[in-house]
């Protein structure tokens, strides 16, 4: 099946920014873009006039407006559009089952407080099987500004655990022809967490920070070989993952993080690091599911 990018639109400024970013990415990668708008007739239990045909036309108009904007801005874009007869979350998840990327919009609440992901976005990111990119309007405008800066990726765990996250990040950097900053944050474990085995490993590498640097280099090694054209900056810093990544990505054009594929009685989770950067990053954030 041909690789495709999918973007969810609903007529809002944030979804238009997501559509614009997705169109840029599709053109950059030479891939088709499929724009979807999930709409399901659900009459309100209120004494007001409601017309199914009128609402259906509004849903079609949302897509037509986005199609017109994107075709005008990106003449060579391979674009299709579809109204999904479904609720937003299951509709987007179904549309993105075989997608390379799913792109959604993020609503901002101000420079000091951060950005509002929204319940739909959080559910989609937690359940999607493909990477999900969250985009917000740039400086209050619905159109994504020209991208500058490096790609930043958060690496944690071992070689296999971070493989998919690094694949997405290296491909993004290679496509953009920009450097990739690979960030590994680490914290001192509580005293009770020390064991003779862990201390032996740390001592062998000359301390905890050299051990973390060695772990990062080991994870990067196969991807450096696969993408020799990508300039890589290895960044190891002590601190919380979210804070370290946000500082490293202050001037980035894309931040890539992972989320573990796991669930609980309360539903799927995106993890504390992904949660932090999604709500406070100024640049688009790609969340990649991994084991």
From TrEMBL:
Signal peptide: none annotated. Pfam families: Usp. It comes from the Bacteria. InterPro entries: Rossmann-like_a/b/a_fold, Universal_stress_UspA, UspA. Belongs to the universal stress protein A family. This is Universal stress protein. It comes from Streptomyces lavendulae subsp. lavendulae. The lineage of its organism: Bacteria, Bacillati, Actinomycetota, Actinomycetes, Kitasatosporales.
């Amino acid at each position: 099946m041909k690789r495709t990018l999918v973007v969810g639109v609903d007529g809002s400024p944030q979804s238009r920014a997501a559509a614009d970013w997705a169109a840029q990415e599709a053109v950059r990668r030479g891939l088709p873009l499929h724009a979807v708008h999930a709409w399901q007739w659900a009459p309100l239990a209120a004494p007001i006039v409601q017309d199914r045909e009128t609402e259906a036309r509004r849903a079609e108009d949302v897509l037509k407006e986005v199609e017109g904007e994107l075709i005008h801005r990106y003449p060579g874009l391979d674009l299709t559009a579809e109204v999904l007869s479904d609720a937003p979350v299951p509709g987007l998840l179904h549309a993105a089952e075989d997608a390379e990327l799913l792109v959604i919009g993020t609503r901002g609440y101000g420079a000091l407080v951060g950005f509002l992901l929204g319940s739909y976005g959080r559910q989609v990111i937690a359940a999607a099987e493909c990477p999900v990119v969250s985009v917000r309007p740039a400086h209050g405008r619905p159109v994504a500004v020209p991208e500058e800066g490096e790609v930043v990726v958060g690496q944690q765990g071992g070689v296999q655990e971070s493989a998919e996250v690094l694949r997405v990040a290296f491909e993004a950097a290679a496509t953009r022809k920009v450097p990739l900053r690979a960030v590994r944050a680490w914290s001192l474990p509580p005293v009770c967490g020390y064991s003779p085995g862990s201390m032996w490993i740390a001592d062998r590498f000359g301390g905890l920070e050299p051990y973390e640097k060695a772990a990062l280099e080991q994870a990067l090694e196969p991807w450096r070989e696969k993408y020799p054209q990508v300039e890589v900056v290895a960044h190891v810093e002590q601190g919380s993952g979210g804070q370290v990544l946000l500082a490293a990505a202050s001037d980035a054009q894309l931040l890539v993080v992972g989320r573990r594929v796991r669930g609980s009685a309360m539903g799927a989770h995106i993890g504390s690091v992904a949660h932090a950067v999604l709500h406070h990053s100024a640049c688009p954030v790609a969340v990649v599911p991994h084991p």
